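Need residues for this backbone.
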């Protein structure tokens, strides 16, 4: 794949080029994609799988072409993580906001064993920490919703 196409995908159509908080912006994009596909489970799963597949495919190449470990412009991992975070959750304002901030916290603080995944080389390290932050968020949200009797 050409470096230009790989960078387009890894930056999620240049969202990663936003100068301030590109990961946060990509997480918002992930929320928007979840809202769009929330009423079609098959498409939601397909889109999520494609984003994850492409992330693993391009991140190592873009990282190598830039010459920096896990450069901030690579944000496809945040989009993928956010899609996992919102999987099978009822989509409404309070849940979106709570899941968004919870995902960002899990992504930033790298709770064990996520901190170990981040140390993996290339695409593995870039993608796995955010995928697990999404899983942590999803599990926490499902538990909270059930505990609160909302779902």
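Answer:
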């Amino acid at each position: 794949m050409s470096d230009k196409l790989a960078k387009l995908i890894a930056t999620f159509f240049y969202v990663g080029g936003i100068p301030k908080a590109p990961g946060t912006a990509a997480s918002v994009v992930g929320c928007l994609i979840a809202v769009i596909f929330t009423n079609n489970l098959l498409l939601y799963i397909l889109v999520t799988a494609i984003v994850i597949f492409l992330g693993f495919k391009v991140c190592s190449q873009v990282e190598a072409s830039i010459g920096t470990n896990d450069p901030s412009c690579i944000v496809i991992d945040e989009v993928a993580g956010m899609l996992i975070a919102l999987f099978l959750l009822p989509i409404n304002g309070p849940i979106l906001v709570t899941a968004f901030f919870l995902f960002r916290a899990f992504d930033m603080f790298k709770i064990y064993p996520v901190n170990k995944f981040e140390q993996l080389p290339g695409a593995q390290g870039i993608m796995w920490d955010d995928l697990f932050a999404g899983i942590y968020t999803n599990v926490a949200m499902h538990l909270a919703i059930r505990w609160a009797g909302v779902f």
